[in-house]
Design goal:
- It is a single chain.
- With 300 residues, this protein is an alpha/beta fold.
- It has one domain (3-299): Alpha-Beta Barrel (TIM Barrel), CATH 3.20.20.
- The protein is built from ten helices and ten strands.
- It has helices at 3-19, 54-67, 89-99, 130-137, 141-149, 170-179, 204-219, 231-236, 273-282, 286-299, and strands at 26-30, 71-75, 83-84, 87-88, 103-108, 121-125, 156-162, 183-190, 246-250, 253-256.
- Strand 3 and strand 4 (87-88) form a beta hairpin.
- The longest helix is centred in the N-terminal third of the chain and has 17 residues, at 3-19.
- It is globular and about 45 Å long.
């Protein structure tokens, strides 16, 4: 991370903590909900299958920038499917950089060739070893690993949603992140139980066991892009929600924190590690502040 970016984020954090501000710093643009996969844990794919036009996404990016957002994510659906004429996801990343966003990340399922060196991080969904990943996402594991080997930059971060199918594959994914070229780190979430995927949710005890495995991997020097100081709050779902410093825009609609905010009761069962980390950070939790500084300076 550039020194100027670090100072900008530090200043934002100090003002937010001292004055209890609710201004956003992290924003997500949903470029499409079209996806080439039908993952067992996903409730937000192919609802409309619309590719939002470049001019609209450009306007949404400007809207987020004017709100104060400086960390931008592009999400889907599958982001690498997005096209508008000769425009691709790479053009959106370049546009975001030119607009002034300090960190620009892309979330992908990894089934398309990865040529996106302009992104700060490519969060690539890998949901277990070959057997368990394929049980969640279909027969895609080998394709993804081949695309990673052929990627044009080392800006990939594995992004694993832990559920009942893959909860015993955490260590395998951690070691893959450590041992695979072009992969910088691994980041975890717990499954957030939308009504149609509730059977995949973890119990409190299962979450505790998963966190113990992640902590063990951290001790083995595996590059984990999460904060263990937030684990107790994730296990108990005791972190404050929603996270006002994060917003999502989809087809002109702005939601605080995420799309799941519209589902009654789902915030109370949130499994997103970054939501816990950010809410605790901006409430001034000293352990989270220290650990986030160390982690973000290492991996972003």
């Amino acid at each position: 991370m550039k020194v100027t970016s670090f100072l900008r984020f530090a200043g934002f954090g100090i003002k937010t903590i001292l004055f209890r501000k609710k201004d956003p710093i992290l924003g997500t643009v949903i470029v499409t909900d079209r996806c080439n996969l039908k993952c067992k844990h996903c409730s937000v794919n192919n609802i409309t299958a619309v590719m939002h036009p470049y001019s609209q996404i450009q306007g949404e990016m400007k809207q987020l920038y004017d709100m104060g957002v400086r960390i931008l994510f592009f999400c889907g659906g599958e982001t690498f499917l997005w096209k508008d004429g000769d425009k691709s996801i790479r053009d959106l990343v370049r546009e975001a950089k030119q607009m002034g966003f300090l960190i620009v990340n892309v979330v992908t399922n990894g089934t398309f060739p990865i040529d996106l060196p302009e992104a700060d991080l490519i969060l690539l969904s890998l949901d277990g070893d070959r057997e368990r990943h394929n049980a969640v996402r279909g027969d895609t594991f080998d394709t993804i690993m081949e695309n990673i080997r052929n990627a044009t930059s080392d800006n990939i971060c594995f992004y694993m949603a832990i559920n009942q199918i893959n909860k015993d594959a955490i260590a395998e994914v951690c070691r893959l992140a450590r041992d695979t070229a072009n992969v910088r780190a691994v980041s975890f979430n717990f499954h957030t139980p939308y009504p149609d995927t509730r059977e995949l949710a973890l119990s409190k005890e299962e979450k505790r066991e998963c966190c113990e495995v992640i902590k063990k991997m951290m001790k083995e020097k595996v590059p984990v892009f999460n904060l263990k100081s937030a684990f107790p709050y994730l296990i108990e779902n005791s972190f404050p929600t929603p996270c006002h410093q994060c917003v999502v825009i989809e087809n002109g609609k702005v939601s605080v924190c995420g799309r799941c905010i519209d589902v009654p009761g789902l915030c109370e069962e949130c499994g997103y590690f970054f939501v816990a980390e950010y809410t605790l950070l901006f409430r001034g939790n000293p352990k989270v502040i220290f650990e986030m500084l160390r982690t973000y300076l290492k991996y972003v």
